[in-house]
UniProtKB/TrEMBL annotation:
Keywords: Membrane, Transmembrane, Transmembrane helix
Molecular-function GO term, any one: L-amino acid transmembrane transporter activity
Protein name listed in UniProt: Amino acid transporter transmembrane domain-containing protein
Location(s) in or outside the cell: Membrane
Bilayer disposition of the protein: Multi-pass membrane protein
Domain Amino acid transporter transmembrane, chain residue ranges per copy: 44-436
Pfam families: Aa_trans (PF01490)
GO cellular component, one term: membrane
């Protein structure tokens, strides 16, 4: 669909939101015979946002606190939460101002032209494919833990990839919402089981069995190397890196004007959960915290926790596979009748997109089977670019022309936008360096995880 035509109709859509059920600027005409891409209500929006955020990232927070120390860790967590909440807010405002925008690449196209659109398109797809890979890795770890390494890890990775492909092939987020209602409580229950277990155990599973009571070596302020510190910060960024997926969620909402309150509920809940889980698990485990954190209590508790977590990890993989597949699907068929009709081209394109994303994600999961390393690499190399810099540019694009006379907050907001751009750029460069160094170090360590290995990957500490 021509963007100029879309822009001319955006005011009509604001005035007549009921028409969005049949005619949408992005998806075109939505008929009863095809998929309804505008069917996510307010509760569904909140649960999808929270499930997009709460997944694999929460499992790396205690180890990030171990590197930074509990006080700097909490401060960094809150700062990243605040910045990403602002970024999430900008998404909602930008979408209401530019209804033709479906993804971050459309926003880049408005701001920077075809080159910007192309660059952000590649980064966006790479990011979500990498996250899908981390989801497959997380599921394989869970299956290993529950089965006590019942089969080769490569087989578990294939099972995880098949599950991700099957569920992500559901065509609309509205129909995936019910999965999020199952997945979010499951992973929260799993995390709380481990949190309670480490609090009542006499020592974490990885701690040495010495005589007398064990005392946690928790650090108030850590003393990490630059590489360790920046890697830990990027792990925290990854925990909030569902941000670029919010474009897809608001695009499928029945009423996009409800986006901001839904987002604030999501971010408040996510930040509270991350803070409690990170502090409690790290406080009681100290330097013996496992990665992923669900293994910190060891033995039976680990099996129970992963048993509860597996549905949540599967749903996370479903959503993060669906988002890049849907992006490519819309990109290829936008403006065509095949986008919203049950034609052979429609189904072949859709399943081809979900299958392609799954295959590449499987290769990534098998090539970098180190949970912390993969998480920090995603957070640094791709997550920061999609959670920081573009939103400073988006605010400036919509508000620069208003000038100082528009309000007293104009100049501070300009400063904040520039600060977010600079901070994101620093984290991208420094974090990628630190993550790559960490992954190389892990490969060189004796007994370290190897690519396409059959070894049990559920015993990392």
């Amino acid at each position: 669909m021509d963007i100029s035509d879309s822009t001319e109709r955006k005011d009509d859509l604001k005035e007549k939101p009921s028409e969005a059920a049949t005619q949408d600027v992005v998806f075109g005409e939505i008929t009863e015979g095809g998929p309804n891409y505008r069917n996510v209500g307010f509760p569904g929006t909140v649960i999808l946002m929270m499930k997009t955020q709460i997944g694999l990232g929460v499992l790396s927070i205690p180890t990030a606190f171990n590197s930074l120390g509990i006080v700097p860790g909490v401060i960094c967590l809150c700062v990243i939460a605040a910045v990403t909440t602002w970024s999430d807010y900008v998404i909602g405002a930008f979408k209401l101002n530019h209804r033709e925008v479906y993804g971050i690449d459309d926003a880049a196209g408005l701001m920077f032209g075809s080159i910007g659109r192309g660059v952000l398109s590649v980064i966006f797809c790479l990011y979500w494919v990498f996250v899908s890979g981390s989801g497959i890795l997380g599921i394989s770890i869970g299956l290993n833990a529950v089965s006590t390494h019942g089969v080769c890890t490569a087989v578990f990775s294939l099972i995880a990839a098949a599950l991700g492909f099957g569920f992500s092939s559901v065509r609309t987020l509205g129909r995936i919402t019910w999965l999020a209602w199952i997945g979010l409580p499951c992973i929260l229950v799993a995390v709380m089981i481990v949190t309670i277990a480490v609090a009542i155990r006499d020592r974490p599973a990885a701690a040495p069995m010495t005589a007398g009571p064990w005392v946690s070596d928790v650090k108030i302020v850590g003393n990490p190397t630059f590489t360790e510190g920046i890697t830990a910060v990027c792990n925290l960024v990854f925990a909030f890196s569902g941000t670029p997926g919010f474009f897809a969620i608001i695009s499928e909402m029945r009423d996009p004007r409800q986006y901001t309150p839904a987002m604030l509920i999501c971010q408040t809940g996510v930040t509270a959960i991350y803070s409690v889980v990170g502090c409690v698990v790290y406080y009681y485990c100290g330097s013996y915290v496992s990665s992923p954190a669900l293994g910190s209590a060891g033995g039976t508790i680990k099996q129970i926790a992963y048993g509860f977590a597996l549905p949540g990890l599967i749903v996370t993989t479903t959503i993060v596979t669906h988002i890049p597949a849907k992006y490519m699907f819309v990109y290829f068929l936008r403006g065509s009748r095949h986008l919203t009709s049950n034609t052979l081209v429609h189904w072949a394109s859709w399943l081809g997109c979900t299958f392609g994303v799954t295959v590449v994600a499987y290769i990534i999961a098998s090539s970098i089977p180190i949970f912390d390393g993969l998480v920090s690499l995603i957070g640094a190399m791709l997550g920061t670019i999609l959670c920081f810099q573009p939103y400073g540019c988006m605010w400036l694009y919509d508000n620069w022309g208003k000038g100082r006379s528009s309000s007293r907050t104009w100049l501070p907001m300009v400063g904040l936008s520039i600060l977010v751009i600079v901070l994101g750029t620093f984290l991208t460069v420094a974090g990628t360096y630190g993550s790559v160094v960490g992954i190389i170090k892990s490969y060189h360590q004796s007994g370290g995880a190897k690519a396409f290995s059959c070894a049990d990957n559920s015993n990392s500490t």
